[in-house]
Amino acid sequence: xxxxxxxxxxxxxxxxxxxxxxxxxxxxxxxxxxxxxxxxxxxxxxxxxxxxxxxxxxxxxxxxxxxxxxxxxxxxxxxxxxxxxxxxxxxxxxxxxxxxxxxxxxxxxxxxxxxxxxxxxxxxxxxxxxxxxxxxxxxxxxxxxxxxxxxxxxxxxxxxxxxxxxxxxxxxxxxxxxxxxxxxxxxxxxxxxxxxxxxxxxxxxxxxxxxxxxxxxxxxxxxxxxxxxxxxxxxxxxxxxxxxxxxxxxxxxxxxxxxxxxxxxxxxxxxxxxxxxxxxxxxxxxxxxxxxxxxxxxxxxxxxxxxxxxxxxxxxxxxxxxxxxxxxxx
Length: 330
Description:
single chain, alpha+beta, Four Helix Bundle (Hemerythrin (Met), subunit A), 2 domains, five-stranded antiparallel beta sheet, 9 helices, globular
């Protein structure tokens, strides 16, 4: 294969995917398979050479409507290459193992905090009922929600039918939502039983807004991607919006949990009501502060995984790429 100048590309079809290579002075030729960078040449078929000038209207008229899609792919690959150059090339599975350990650590820490320092758990309107609130929120809105966001980054999800992974993504998100609703029930019941006002703090406003946004996100995603009513063009239009709000909700969940931990420590370790006040940093405060840091670290690493283009599922032209849950052909 001949060397390419900067900005010049070739595309060779192979099955349902395309192989592309782009010239880059000083780095040799850069090869891609779908959206994955690979260190070998693609020689499946005679290649169509396209230069930057070919992306104009004249080139579109000569080479046909498929050129527009090729040019769009080229722009996406250039953006992906730019992002990949700024991010470390880490193996995904060890990174995923680290994330799983951090997620379990968050759940273990919040459970240990409420059990050891806050008196354990009950469902009777007492302070022990309140303890379900942080456990359910951290487990659902942070850990399970983060896991749902990473489903399509798992290497097994890169091949074969996409529908089972859609189902897993939706189920994890729905489970997270159910746990969040139970967490709301726990805190509202405790407040009502103890005569504490509801919805007066910034933490409560932020948390409720996050859950309401999450409910809209889940309903919209289920309707667009798993029901047979949305046309393909609408799914394609909504997909980047769904991804954006998915990351936004995860960040809002992190902020809600961290502010809730801080608020609980302020109320529980006030001067005159605790043997060691918060300002003197008792062991409970140290433990809960570490919990907050673990939550932040978990969310940041999830967002890094989502932003890494080399871990993104290649969009093959398979039959079920846009297949809904209902209405599939048999």
